[in-house]
Design brief:
Strand order of the largest sheet: 1-2-3
Largest sheet: 3 strands, antiparallel
Number of strands: 3
Structural class: mainly beta
Order of helices and strands: EEEH
Number of helices: 1
Length: 81
C-alpha cells in the first residue's frame, strides 16, 4: 500500500475529460482538478498503479498523447553526494 504522505501524486478519474490529483505538500493535502475539451489518453494500469514520469504527466495534463515521451528508468542513488 502506498503512503499518502510520501510526496507522490495520486491521480483519479471517472470521466475521460476530467482528472483529480491528490498530494501531500508538507502541511496538508492538496487537491488539483483539471477538465479539458476532448479526452485524456490514459496509460495502462499495472498492478493497480499507473507509472508516469514527470514529463509524461505534464503532457497528459496538457491533453496531449503521453505515449510520445519515452519513460526513462533511473536508478535511485545509493547516497547523497
Amino acid at each position: 500500500m502506498a503512503d499518502p504522505f510520501d510526496g507522490g501524486l495520486y491521480v483519479f478519474s471517472k470521466r475521460r475529460d476530467r482528472v483529480k490529483i491528490l498530494t501531500w505538500d508538507g502541511s496538508g493535502l492538496v487537491l488539483y482538478y483539471k477538465r479539458i475539451e476532448g479526452q485524456f489518453t490514459w496509460p495502462p494500469i499495472k498492478g493497480g498503479v499507473m507509472p508516469l514520469s514527470h514529463a509524461q504527466l505534464s503532457v497528459l495534463l496538457d491533453g496531449s498523447d503521453w505515449k510520445r515521451l519515452p519513460m526513462r528508468v533511473v536508478d535511485q542513488p545509493l547516497r547523497a553526494g
